[in-house]
Amino acid sequence: MKRAFRCVLAATFTIAALSLASVFLSAHADAQSYNRWTLGIVDASFIWSPPPGVAESIPHCAYDLAKQSGYTSANARPGEESPLQYCLLQKMHEHGATKNAIAFTKWYYDTPHGDSAYITALAKPQYGPVQLASIFYPGNANNNAAYLFVNGTNPQVTDPNVVFAPAAEPWKRNADYQAILSAHPNAFVYPALSFVGLARRDGGGQRFTLAAPILDGCHACARLGVVDITYDFGSLGAPKGLSLIAVRQR
To answer: What tens digit of pLDDT does each residue of 219-233 get?
Structure first.
């Protein structure tokens, strides 16, 4: 099955060539040049709220279908729909998903390195047009929940997980993070963002703050701290850059 778009969005960028701001700006422009957003403004009609137990049934459906068909990601044909995507769309049709919700799931799957996911919630806009959409990956063994910035301009949809691309990872140059590494050599920043806050950006626009945990070697290991990252958008919703604002030890 396809790897999650959020984990590999900017993996080909070189560290020397790009600043943090240009990583944020260029990654999305490059990725969406292959599958531009044409679905209009994201609103409540893009949200799917499956009944209890339905989301949990999707991976089981996909496993059974893959077993029956012999599907593997290694032998998949270009453009072939994965069993997970087939089962997700089937469940969406069966359990009241709107045309817009289904259209998003199809669009997201077709983005470079996209995956099977759907929108579960949409935060109200403040200080500008960009909104934070919560998305859910039913096929992930860990970390099923994530975010997308939607209703921006150039591009309209951006992925905050670009901060985990090799060209970014700003915490690696932070003294507080290096101190944690000295005490815990296996520490790493786990790619699971949580919402911290939204404020008006100096000069106009929006500043979103998200956080990611620092873990001691694995996703189930001890939590050592957290990194806070800001994402800036102009007054019309254009991305302006991202930056590390704090590394906090637990």
So the answer is: 999 999 999 999 999
